[in-house]
Design a protein that fits this description.
The complex is a heterodimer.
Chain A: H1 11-40, H2 52-56, H3 66-71, H4 76-103, E1 112-122, E2 125-133, H5 135-158, H6 165-184, H7 188-206, H8 213-244, H9 249-262, H10 267-284, H11 293-296, H12 302-311, H13 316-323, H14 325-328, H15 332-355, H16 359-379, H17 383-410, H18 428-442, H19 448-462, H20 468-493, H21 501-506, H22 512-527, H23 535-541, H24 546-561, H25 574-601, H26 605-612, H27 614-621, H28 626-673, H29 680-704
Antiparallel strand pairs in A: 1-2
Helix pairs in contact in A: 1-4, 1-6, 4-5, 4-6, 5-6, 5-12, 5-17, 5-22, 6-7, 7-8, 7-12, 8-10, 10-13, 10-15, 12-17, 13-17, 15-16, 15-20, 16-17, 16-19, 16-20, 17-18, 17-19, 17-22, 17-24, 18-19, 18-20, 18-22, 19-20, 19-25, 20-25, 26-27
Chain B: H1 4-24, H2 28-53, H3 57-87
Helix pairs in contact in B: 1-2, 2-3
Classes of the chains: A mainly alpha, B mainly alpha.
Chain lengths: 705, 100
């Protein structure tokens, strides 16, 4: 009881796990029999008339029609709709109280470790199952539980027409448990458990509508792409244990200076560890070259896209890199790789976003692009800025996804922006909140996205790891971001309706369970940035940079211990910072202006441009043919190599050994069995021969002795 | 008194004839008779050894063997008759279904 509420930190991941258990029981024992019973009966129209009729004829077909079973919601749904958000909400409250308790401590004592039980003890490998709450993990825990809670509430509304309601929330709760394990773990191995857990939930939720081929394919693609990265993380963990003799964060990072001095931890070793960790990050956080799974992940339900594939899971890579900042700062080569990959991903996926017509895919590429910004920040040593952008991005991108979900919900499942337009009057709340989020992501001053993005741009320019080239790429990507986001808004909400008249008749604003989370996230998208106002602006208004102060104990001792000071090592005049800020705002405004011109004023122009450069348009529209390239360069190679191995090695060599052994025994038996001829005389003769031999042997022995 | 080796030689000859009969002949009846011959060859050896050593056990064993041989002959002939009824032959080489 010495630590007060902090002793209850274990409740934060445990509460969602409780939700998994309760909802899992409901899904297994109430929902599954219910759905099976329903599926077994002939449904009105389409499927259901084949095969099952004979077996169920006695049940009577008339009383179980479409209308009867669909509108009568079973009682368990209400229970699930309460449990799932409630456990996450409770986890948020506990996490908030824990963080407040942590904040009341002095700045250098803000690392609370709770060892739950000894987990693995093998030789010198001692891994406890422990939780660690420090400024970094507290930001992550609050974002995960807070945004997660809102998305759970939203899901209750969004999934209200879904039949496998309980199954959905089991997966969603399981995801929360895994994600909280990931961010709260006090060692790499437990983090990896959460890391794999979120990958599993991602797979389950992308393939939630598994009857659809594309959805189940997308799930597999995400899982396999992540496996490649996970392999890197595993190797990195082996190296960390080999080098440091421990996997616990506090021990590893405490040993860094000592091992550095003694020469054990060479720069090459640090580079190897960090590059492998970064490989894992590119998988989980969808960076080049492993980003291809994220756009396909949009096959999952939209709240899942918001929670897992925008706000939380995909930021796990950024969290891991930030967590390992002490190691990354020792490897300048890795830092450069991270920064360059981040910047290139940011601009590369932003350009793809321009030509996409599926509303969710635009947001998916936007997410990849924004994650690129976060890695750019990590790569230039601005870990605080990366985590800051992670947080603000979680707010506005979750809002954008939930808003697009609300639009899709209103349009009975339509996702193609070419069949939208003029939706402003049908879904006013969705429009207003999404517009706020769009302003935030575009970097309009005063909103959250502006502060975090600008911090990254400034660090990319001014940090000792940064360069003007990185700044230029990132600033250009910011302009493109503003352009495609406003293109999305203009195509969806403004102009004349291109909707199917039937769909338009049903267009409606979403229920309160969906709009309230939207409004709360809109508030966060506006105000979320105010806790991290950069000093150059904040000093003017007398507002300190709370966020940087909060994270300083995690990143600054690290920066001092590393070879280079990360932040603040090079001093630039304030005028330069203000100037660059103005330039980036101007670029964003240009992007917005261009979007306004092309999609509001001269709406025929985009088609003309596409026609003027058909090759360019084709390449961008087809996402640079990266999927096709991977298909050709990797997948087909692996498939043909596997086929070869199957036919040559497995079918011939392995099967040859097994079948050869059997053939040998059979051939031998075939020879031997002929001794048994069935002729009694033959048996009598062998009997005689045996007797003669025996007697002869006995005589021989007696003679010799 | 005759040298015991002569009795043993007789015994061996009788036994040898019996063995050859069992192995070489095709008629089951002959084979059974050959078996009797072998048993009696053994009997000669028993009685001769018993008499030579002055031990009654040799003669007792001979009677024992005769008893068993009588039982064996009864069972063997019964089987032979059953076989003949079934197969209408007593040629041992025809009876070779009991293999692999």
């Amino acid at each position: 009881m010495v630590n007060g509420i902090l002793d209850y930190l274990w409740l934060v991941p445990a509460l969602p796990l409780l939700g998994v258990a309760l909802n899992g029981a409901i899904a297994l024992f109430a929902e599954r029999p219910f759905l099976l019973k329903e599926a077994g009966l002939p449904l009105a129209g389409g499927h259901g008339t084949h095969g099952h009729d004979a077996g169920h004829a006695s049940h009577g077909t008339s009383s179980h029609g479409d209308s009867a079973s669909h509108h009568e919601a079973p009682a368990y749904r209400k229970l699930v709709a309460f449990i799932a958000p409630a456990v996450v909400g409770a986890a948020f409250v506990v996490a908030l109280l824990c963080v407040l308790s942590l904040a009341s401590r002095p700045a250098d004592g803000r690392t609370f470790v709770q060892i739950l039980f000894p987990w693995i003890q093998a030789g010198s490998l001692l891994v406890p199952a422990g939780l660690q709450l420090d400024p970094l993990s507290s930001v992550m825990a609050l974002v995960v539980t807070g945004v997660g809670f809102l998305i759970h509430v939203y899901s209750v509304g969004y999934m209200s027409h879904e039949r496998a309601f309980a199954r959905y929330f089991v997966y969603l709760n399981l995801f929360m448990f895994a994600m909280l394990t990931l961010v709260l773990a006090n060692n790499y191995l437990l983090m990896f458990v959460g890391w794999e857990g979120v990958g599993l939930c991602s797979y389950l939720l992308i393939g939630f509508w598994y009857e659809k081929q594309s959805a189940s394919d997308a799930g597999k693609k995400a899982f396999i792409a992540n496996r490649i990265g996970d392999f890197g993380v595993l190797l990195a963990m082996f190296l960390v244990f080999w080098t440091f003799g421990s996997l616990t964060y506090t021990e590893v990072f405490a040993r860094v200076p000592l091992l550095r001095e003694s020469g054990v931890l060479t720069t090459g070793l640090a580079t190897a560890i960090t590059l492998l960790l970064f490989l894992g990050a590119t998988g989980k956080s969808a960076q080049i070259p492993l980003y291809v799974w994220l756009p396909d992940a949009m096959e999952g339900p939209t709240p899942v896209s918001a929670l897992i594939h925008a706000a939380t899971m995909v930021t796990a890579g950024v969290y891991m890199v930030a967590r390992s900042s002490a190691l990354f700062l020792l490897a300048p080569d890795t830092m450069m790789v991270v920064a360059v990959i981040g910047a290139v991903t940011a601009i590369f996926s932003a350009t793809i976003g321009i030509c996409q017509t599926d509303i969710k895919r635009v947001l998916a590429y936007s997410t990849v692009s924004q994650l690129g910004y976060m890695f750019l920040a990590c790569g230039v040593g601005a870990f605080t800025a990366a985590i800051f952008h992670l947080m603000t991005h979680a707010f506005f991108k979750a809002l954008l996804f939930l808003g697009s979900g609300s639009v899709i919900h209103a349009l009975s499942g339509e996702q193609d922006m070419q069949k939208m337009g003029g939706l402003k009057k049908y879904v006013p709340v969705t429009f207003a909140t999404m517009f706020v989020a769009t302003l935030a992501i575009a970097g309009i001053p005063g909103l959250s996205g502006f502060f975090s993005k600008d911090e990254i741009l400034w660090q990319a320019f001014s940090s000792s790891h940064g360069s003007p080239a990185l700044w230029a790429v990132a600033a250009l990507a910011a302009g493109i971001t503003a352009f495609y986001m406003f293109r999305l808004v203009f195509l969806t909400f403004f102009g004349t309706s291109r909707m199917d008249p039937e769909v338009e008749r049903h267009a409606h604003e979403s229920p309160w369970t969906m709009t309230v989370p939207l409004m709360l996230l809109a508030v966060l998208s506006v105000a979320g940035g105010w806790i991290g106002i950069p000093a150059v602006v904040g000093d003017f208004f007398g507002i300190p940079n709370y966020f940087e102060h909060w994270l300083a104990p995690v990143f600054h001792p690290v920066a001092a211990a590393g070879a280079h000071g990360a932040e603040g090592a090079v001093h630039h005049p304030a005028a330069l910072e203000i100037g660059l800020m103005a330039v980036s705002v101007a670029i964003a405004l240009c992007g917005i202006g261009l979007a306004y011109f092309l999609y509001r004023v001269r709406t025929g122009k985009p088609a003309e441009i596409a026609k003027a450069w058909p090759a360019l348009y084709d390449v961008v529209y087809h996402k640079y043919y990266i999927d096709e390239f991977y298909e050709w360069a990797v997948i087909r190679r692996i498939v043909s190599a596997s086929t070869g191995l199957w036919q040559m090695f497995d079918a011939r060599f392995i099967d040859g050994i097994v079948n050869g052994g059997a053939d040998l025994v059979r051939a031998g038996g075939d020879r031997v069995r002929r001794l048994q001829g069935g002729v009694v005389g033959g048996y009598a003769f062998s009997l005689l021969a045996g007797a003669v031999l025996l007697v002869g042997y006995i005589l021989y022995r007696s003679v010799v002795q | 008194m005759i040298d015991p080796s002569a009795y043993l030689l007789l015994s061996a000859v009788l036994f040898g004839i019996g063995v050859v009969g069992v192995v070489a002949r095709k008629n089951v009846l002959i084979i059974l008779m050959s078996v009797e011959l072998m048993l009696n060859g053994v009997n000669v050896a028993f009685v001769a050894a018993g008499s030579y050593l002055g031990d009654a056990a040799g003669g007792i064993f001979a009677f024992m063997v005769m008893t068993v041989a009588a039982a064996e002959a009864a069972v063997g002939l019964a089987l032979l008759i059953a076989l003949y009824r079934l197969k209408e032959t007593v040629d041992i080489t025809e009876l070779k279904v009991l293999k692999w």
